[in-house]
């Protein structure tokens, strides 16, 4: 078996990238996903997500194929920290985007309801199941 430089796994294919190289690619893909989320670029979000899934699958296969593990080299720990920070950052950005979209939907539903109440007796948004909810109430679980 061959142990390439920068790899924490033994593997049979000397031309395949090592664990550290795959982790570096995953960290770069996480950064690309951040940029795509900030720009609200749907195609780039999908591409980065697919790339990340492929890299995770390749890391899993590498780990499964390894018969002997050696101590990870010094480059793996910072990469793991970088990937963890990127995952937390991207989760926060996605949560903020979700909250913003939900707020916009509530605003639009309120505006549509106010406009339709003036025009007729039928309303765009049904009555709130809770009388204490505002006119633009929308179920957040949707």
Q: Compute the CA-based radius of gyration.
A: 24 Å
Largest sheet: none
Domains counted in the coordinates: how many? Answer: 1
Structural class: mainly alpha
Please characterize this protein's 3D structure.
- This protein has one domain.
- Helices cover 63% and strands 0% of the residues.
- α1 (19-39) runs antiparallel to α2 and α1 runs parallel beside α3 (76-119).
- With 142 residues, the protein is mainly α.
- Residues 1-14 have low confidence and may be disordered.
- It is elongated and about 65 Å long.
Question: What secondary-structure arrangement, pairings included, does this model have?
Answer:
Layout: H1 19-39, H2 42-65, H3 76-119
Give the key terms.
142 residues; mainly alpha
Task: Summarize this structure briefly.
This protein is mostly helical and 142 residues long. The protein has helices spanning 19-39, 42-65, 76-119.
